[in-house]
Design a protein that fits this description.
The chain is α+β, with helices and mostly antiparallel strands. It is 39% helix and 22% strand.
Amino acid sequence: MRYFLYIIFSSLACTAYSQQMTVLSKVTDDSISIKWIAGEFSELQAMTNGATISRAESEKPQNFQLVNFTGAKTWTIEPTKKRFDQLGSSQEDEKFEILIEPFLTGNSSEEEKNFAKITAMIENMVNPRFQYVFGNILVDKEFDKSKT
């Protein structure tokens, strides 16, 4: 089984909550998927700031604390607002706007925040496109299977 090392460097706000987020990964023959899930409204809101993800490869397994990230493959997940502004007028896009808006504005009561958190978490579990729009998933299909 291949091991892949990913380091998630989030924006300053997201870093404050990164200890509480759950990171899920799935490795198949042709892709590596990483998704991070937050349990609190403030953590979900912090995820909307975007993130930078880097992958370092090695010819053989080694102590991962010693991995050099110079030249590592890097992705930037843009802030949710950029993807949010590109949504169209389809019924699904309108639903996404309703689900995401409370995280972008932050001007909600506690009851509205709880409702937004729960509905966004449910949509996140069942709709891969929502994961992309919200910005909490990365799928890597460009890796060398012979490397660690």
